[in-house]
């Protein structure tokens, strides 16, 4: 276990300083020994030819040691980071911890979405309601902190090429390309009682183009945008994040060109977007136990910060899942 396992930063700093002093001392001694050895190689022999051979040997030894120590240094840092088992939830850690949950919810949403297309647009919400009984089984798939291994490669890739899930964006960004009727539907009907709004908007960013070339999916040109309402809590942030990830996985899975009864439906626009957002929103509400009666409202059957805390996650202070500083007001208040 690493030194900050109980959040004692003073103990961590003291031990790190002690280690740093010891490593610097050992490095200084070895550096002096190496410098003397290289000097011996350079000055070995009296004639010019042997002097040239000595300088050549010293250069080879110097570069060999430099390359070996650099590789060892990078590997040691990588191995050290891999050993960390942090209990706070950031975006990448949450993706790994909730991955099985995302996939289970995605299956339910996709099945309901295609069933609604076959039924002429009518959404059979009973297909999502019946999954409430499976919540306990789904929630058991959430990983504990010691079971989560972040991918440094994927984290670096997401840092260089921003993902298509944009959290905490401005309201003007999340409503880009939407009609007034769509906005009225989202603000009054779909998200009237929520502290966030989620929409699907087109993207033309460089990162989206690179991701499309790698994965070959046209859905990479669609952003899932989330705007938080003023006063949103940690629970609201977590709910919005889970909703966004489920919607993203549905977009990656659904074939945008697939047609039913000879009619193509682009789910990123108009009725298709409303349908997918409503289905995923309903699924997330079921997951968080929205509308449950007293008997069903036990933590065993709903997703909550308390359940994450019981699993060992540190959610008492704040979440670090990537929401920006922007907040908006809607409903009875003026939208900013």
How are the SSEs ordered, and which strands pair?
Layout: H1 9-42, H2 48-83, H3 91-97, H4 99-118, H5 126-129, H6 135-139, H7 152-160, E1 165-167, H8 171-174, H9 180-190, E2 196-202, H10 206-215, E3 222-229, H11 234-253, E4 259-260, E5 263-264, H12 270-287, H13 305-310, E6 327-328
Parallel strand pairs: 1-3, 3-6
Antiparallel strand pairs: 2-3, 4-5
Helix pairs in contact: 1-2, 4-11, 4-12, 11-12
What's the quick description here?
The chain is built from 13 helices and six strands.
What's the number of helices?
A: 13
User: How many β-strands, per DSSP?
Assistant: 6
Strand coverage percent: 5-15%
Calculate the terminal CA-CA distance, rounded to whole Å: 46 Å
- Major β-sheet, in short? 4 strands, mixed
Overall pLDDT, averaged? 77
Explain the overall architecture:
There is one protein chain. With 336 residues, the protein is an alpha/beta fold. The protein has 13 helices and six strands. A hairpin with a 2-residue loop joins β4 (259-260) and β5. The radius of gyration is 27 Å and the shape is elongated. The two termini are 46 Å apart. The model is unreliable at 205-211, 213-219 and 256-265 (pLDDT under 50).
């Amino acid at each position: 276990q690493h030194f900050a396992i109980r959040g004692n930063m003073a103990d961590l700093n003291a031990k790190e300083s002690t280690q740093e002093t010891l490593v610097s001392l050992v490095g200084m001694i070895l550096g002096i020994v190496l410098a003397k050895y290289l000097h011996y190689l350079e000055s070995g022999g009296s004639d010019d030819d042997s002097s040239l051979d000595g300088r050549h040997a010293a250069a080879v030894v110097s570069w060999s040691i430099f390359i070996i120590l650099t590789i060892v240094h990078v590997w040691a840092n990588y191995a050290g980071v891999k050993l960390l088992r942090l209990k706070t939830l950031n975006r990448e850690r949450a993706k790994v911890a909730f991955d099985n949950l995302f996939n289970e919810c995605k299956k339910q949403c996709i099945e309901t979405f295609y069933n609604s297309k076959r039924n002429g647009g009518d959404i059979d919400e009973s297909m999502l309601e019946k999954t409430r009984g499976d919540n306990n089984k789904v929630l058991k798939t959430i990983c504990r902190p010691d079971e989560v291994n972040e991918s440094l490669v994927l984290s670096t890739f997401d840092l260089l090429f921003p993902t298509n899930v944009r959290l905490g964006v401005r309201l003007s960004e999340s409503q880009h390309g939407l009609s007034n009727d769509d906005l009225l539907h989202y603000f009054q009907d779909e998200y009237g009682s929520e502290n966030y709004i989620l929409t699907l908007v087109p993207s033309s960013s460089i990162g989206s183009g690179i991701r499309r070339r790698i994965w070959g999916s046209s859905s990479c040109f669609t952003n899932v945008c989330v705007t938080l309402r003023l006063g949103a809590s940690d629970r609201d942030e977590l709910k919005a994040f889970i909703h966004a990830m489920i919607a993203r996985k549905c977009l990656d899975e659904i074939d945008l060109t697939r047609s039913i009864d000879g009619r193509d439906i682009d789910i990123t626009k108009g009725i298709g977007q409303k349908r997918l957002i409503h289905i995923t929103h309903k699924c997330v509400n079921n997951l968080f136990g929205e509308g449950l009666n007293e008997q069903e409202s036990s933590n065993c059957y709903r997703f909550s910060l308390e359940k994450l805390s019981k699993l060992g996650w540190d959610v008492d202070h704040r979440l670090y899942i990537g929401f920006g500083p922007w907040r908006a007001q809607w409903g009875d208040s003026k939208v900013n």
